[in-house]
Design goal:
5-stranded mixed β-sheet, 7 strands, two-stranded parallel ribbon, 7 helices, Prot-tyrosine_phosphatase-like
Length: about 200
């Protein structure tokens, strides 16, 4: 008998960011029934290694059984690892890839996670909020909901986020809700490309 079959347990630090967009920690079998009810189309894993049948057979089988697209974006382990010298465990190419998935309705509903649902996910979501014209105060207040503190490196990473974002034809309706086209076109730090333009390339620190 499946001991998890009658439980509805969200992943650690689970939250709905926007309609059909969710964040949290690495899903465990106890979370699968809860996640299934979200009718996810995509799971984005911000982890050091991809999820495979060999590395995590239960998670891998869950996405297969529920026809979920599993997308891995490589990140260093939080708190160290091979990219420790970068001060933060991700770079801007990771953020851009994640953002372009999150704002594309073809991937919704979408769940994005790192290992513990804290620093890496929070950095990406902070940059999403910057894309959506949130103020720095609001961005970092939300950040602190999911982390114990915010250090200088994390704050600087978000404040210095500059990139070219490929805006999909079928972008989510909430991304610039209430803002005029002229305002979006003149974002102070980000450049937007439509689906007929070239993709971003070599966006880095």
């Amino acid at each position: 008998m499946d001991t998890h079959s009658n439980l509805l347990v969200p992943p650690l630090r689970f939250s709905q960011i926007q309609p059909n967009l969710y964040r949290g920690s690495y899903p465990r079998p106890i979370n699968f029934r809860f996640l299934k009810r979200l009718e996810l189309k995509t799971i984005v894993s911000l982890t050091p290694d991809p999820i495979t049948a060999q590395s995590d057979s239960e998670f891998y089988q869950f996405v297969l059984d529920n026809n979920i697209e599993l997308i891995h974006i490589e990140c260093a382990p939080e708190g160290g690892g091979k990219r420790k010298k970068r001060e933060v465990p991700i770079d801007y190419t990771v953020v851009v890839k994640a953002l372009e998935l999150m704002i594309d309705t073809n991937h919704s509903p979408l769940y994005i996670h790192c290992l513990n649902g804290s620093q890496i996910s929070s950095l990406v979501i902070a940059c999403l909020r910057k894309l959506s014209f949130w103020s720095s105060v609001s961005i970092f207040n939300e950040y602190l909901v999911y982390t114990n503190s915010i250090n200088l490196h994390d704050r600087t990473f978000v404040e210095n986020f500059r990139a070219e974002i490929n805006v999909p034809k079928n972008k989510v309706s909430w991304i610039w809700s209430g803002l005029s086209k002229d305002v979006v076109g003149n974002h102070p730090t980000l450049t937007f490309l439509n689906t007929n333009d070239r993709k971003y390339s070599d966006v880095g620190n």
